[in-house]
Amino acid sequence: MAIISVSEPPFQNVNRQMNKLIDQLTKGYYNFYPSDTWTPNVNLYETEAYYLVCVDLAGVEKDKIDIEVLDGQLSLKGHRTVPVQSPAETSDQPRVRVHLMEIDHGSFRRHVELPQDVINDQITATYENGLLWIQLPKK
Questions:
Q1: Which of 6, 27, 56, 93 has the fewest CB atoms found within 10 Å of its own CB?
Q2: If you average pLDDT over every residue of the chain, what do you get?
Q3: What's residue 61's pLDDT?
Q4: β-bridge mates for residue 125, sequence order
Q5: Which three-class secondary structure state does DSSP give residue 123?
Q6: What letter would DSSP give residue 129?
Q7: Sorting pLDDT into bands at 50, 70 and 90, what band is 98?
């Protein structure tokens, strides 16, 4: 697949980068609320035949992802548990102390507006290596 890079005007994405920085600064172990939802990162691509949505869902189990297309909008939701390393069978360490927690966990939700020329009944999705790929064929 050929990837075409489209140059943006200077400072086009400054607002998005600033919002991401502020989110990162306010996150952490002491600022996490179990009722909060997080928003996975998305890449959008386009070919002559289809649109392609790539969603970063590392660590999310496939059966914990719900995809819905309704009224021209792609909606994703699901849940990711707190990532922990499985202790070795012989390990006798009783507890793990958290010093920093930046990896989002808990419920997530993401909405993507779809173009008018998507064939809704031919949308396909695959989940591989923590990336959800959603292919949206064009009319």
A1: 6
A2: 82
A3: 94
A4: 134
A5: coil
A6: T
A7: confident
